[in-house]
């Protein structure tokens, strides 16, 4: 993305599989985990919860047997208009994602929907309100 080229599924899937393995390890050890990443498609979120078996496309195995474990994931979908997000992106300095790729991200986006475990929060809220909403949701789970 830093070169101005949007990532495709083949680029993202191995990375997401690796994140799944890390999450699985940390959750299995009793840790509570917060992961911030762009999982724009439902398939990407399925990989995070189910690993490579969550999708038709398979990940490269790194010499170990794949675990078929699934974990609970709460997706926090921060939603905002193209105009608002574009304005914020233009104010960033030294960020890896060029503003020219934002449209491709909106085109790729598959917002979470039932039966996915998610909450949607507007980016028009301030950071304190966003955090409070997330924390309140976690307390109810």
UniProtKB/TrEMBL annotation:
EC number: 2.7.1.12
Biochemical pathway: Carbohydrate acid metabolism; D-gluconate degradation
UniProt-recorded name of the protein: gluconokinase
UniProt source species: Nomascus leucogenys
A Gene Ontology molecular function term of the record: gluconokinase activity
Keyword S-adenosyl-L-methionine: no
GO cellular component: cytoplasm
Coiled-coil region list: none
InterPro entries: P-loop_NTPase, Therm_gnt_kin
GO biological process, one term: carbohydrate metabolic process
Keywords (A to Z) from UniProt: ATP-binding, Kinase, Nucleotide-binding, Transferase
Keyword GTP-binding: no
Catalytic activity: D-gluconate + ATP = 6-phospho-D-gluconate + ADP + H(+)
Record-stated family: Belongs to the gluconokinase GntK/GntV family.
Taxonomic superkingdom: Eukaryota
């Amino acid at each position: 993305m830093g070169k101005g080229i949007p990532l495709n599924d083949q680029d993202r899937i191995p990375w997401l599989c690796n994140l799944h393995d890390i999450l699985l390890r940390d959750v299995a050890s009793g840790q509570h985990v917060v992961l911030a990443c762009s999982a724009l498609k439902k398939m990407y979120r399925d990989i995070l919860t189910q690993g490579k078996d969550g999708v038709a496309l398979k990940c490269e195995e790194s010499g170990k047997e794949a675990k078929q474990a699934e974990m609970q994931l709460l997706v926090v979908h921060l939603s905002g208009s193209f105009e608002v997000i574009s304005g914020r992106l233009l104010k960033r300095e030294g960020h890896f994602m060029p503003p020219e790729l934002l449209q491709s991200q909106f085109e790729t986006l598959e917002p979470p929907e039932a039966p996915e475990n998610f909450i949607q929060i507007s980016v028009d809220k301030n950071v304190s309100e966003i955090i409070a909403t997330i924390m309140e949701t976690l307390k109810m789970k």
